[in-house]
Write a structure and sequence with these properties.
- By secondary structure, the chain is an alpha/beta fold.
- The protein is built from 6 helices and 5 strands; from the N terminus they run βαβααβαββαα.
- Strands 2-1-3-4-5 form a 5-stranded parallel beta sheet, with helices on both faces.
- Helix 1 links the parallel strand 1 and strand 2.
- About 35% of the residues are buried.
- The model has no long low-confidence stretch (mean pLDDT about 85).
């Protein structure tokens, strides 16, 4: 399975990306990040790479939030299942608030968002519907939990 990870972090948090990629590879996932495609222009050709999942990570201190938002929009337009992890302190533009599978997280108290992800995964596994929202949680829940844990202040 191919996962596209688009992230906006400050330089002091970039260490989590190689750790997450290693974790996902152990789960038999192939990971491509937005920085591998281009540092300047948003990636928009998800069909060509046969991505099964798109994960967006937006943080207040990140310097690529606009690029990530555009890639997220492109993934939705391409009908790729998406999960967006949004730091609580990041002001999400109003037009994004109705997009699917948004999880807000707090670095100092990650347990609420982790519980929400686990509940979404359980609900999706038990659902008879096989839609892109269910698929996003089934495929991406592990990655979402790992990312939140890596970014949290909890040890």
């Amino acid at each position: 399975m191919k996962v596209f990870l688009s992230y906006s972090l400050n330089n002091s948090n970039l260490y989590v990306i190689p750790m997450l990629v290693t974790h996902l590879k152990k789960q038999n996932m192939e990971v491509l990040t937005s920085y591998e495609t281009s540092n300047i222009a948003p990636f928009n050709n998800f069909q060509s790479m046969n991505a099964s999942l798109f994960i967006a990570l937006l943080t207040k201190s990140g310097n690529q939030n606009e690029k990530v938002s555009k890639e997220w929009n492109n993934a939705i337009k391409s009908k790729i299942p998406t999960i967006a992890l949004i730091e609580n302190s990041f002001k999400l533009p109003d037009q994004f608030n109705n997009w699917p599978n948004i999880i807000r997280f707090d670095r100092t108290n990650p347990s609420k968002s982790i519980s929400q992800i686990q509940a979404n995964r359980t609900s999706s596994v038990n659902s008879e519907k096989n839609d892109s929202n269910a698929l996003a949680w089934i495929l991406g829940g592990i990655a979402a939990i790992a990312l939140i844990k890596l970014l949290s202040d909890d040890d």
